[in-house]
Amino acid sequence: MAEHVVGSIADFPVGSHRVVTVRNMQVGVFNVNGTLHALPNVCPHQFGPLCTGRVNGTMVCTEETGWRHAWVRNGEIVTCPWHGIEFAITTGVSLVSSRLRVRRYPVTIENGEVKITL
Questions:
Q1: Disulfide engineering: 41 pairs with which of 26, 100, 104, 107, CB 3.0-4.6 Å?
Q2: Which whole number is the average pLDDT over 6-10?
């Protein structure tokens, strides 16, 4: 495993995301509430470009919301543009099924540089 510099911290403001190329693969780097996360730009469903999808929240209706619909986790969910499958950026787990997930790569910041370990 090796560290790869993918930009400076200024390239990833809070709430932003972008796809970078590391070696021969594309990786999505997301800044969720000040914490950087990296996911492969491949949806495990049918290999669509997951990280080019929309970042948003999701709708829930649970006992905690009084069985009313509520918009939650805003800025924490990426939606695959091909089929609309949602993934939690912070865990890589799909909201459809916990068995459907994407790998997460370690991200570090050193001297203002963002590094991903692959």
A1: 26
A2: 97
How far is CA 21 from its chain centroid? Answer: 15
Tell me how far apart the alpha carbons of residues 106 and 100 are, in angstroms, rounded to a whole number.
20
Q: Can you tell me the distance from the alpha carbon of 15 to that of 98, in angstroms, rounded to the nearest whole number?
A: 25
At 1, is the pLDDT very low, low, confident or very high (cuts 50, 70, 90)?
confident
Cα dihedral sign, 20-53-42-110: positive
- Give 65-103 pLDDT, tens digit per residue: 999 999 999 999 999 999 999 999 999 999 999 999 999
Q: Within 13 Å and on the Cβ side, how many CA atoms surround 77?
A: 17
Dig out the tokens for 26 from the structure: 């594309």
Whether the pTM exceeds 0.90: the reply is: yes
CA distances 2 to 16, 51, 107, 110, Å, are 25, 22, 12, 15
Q: Are 50 and 42 in contact (CB under 8 A)?
A: yes
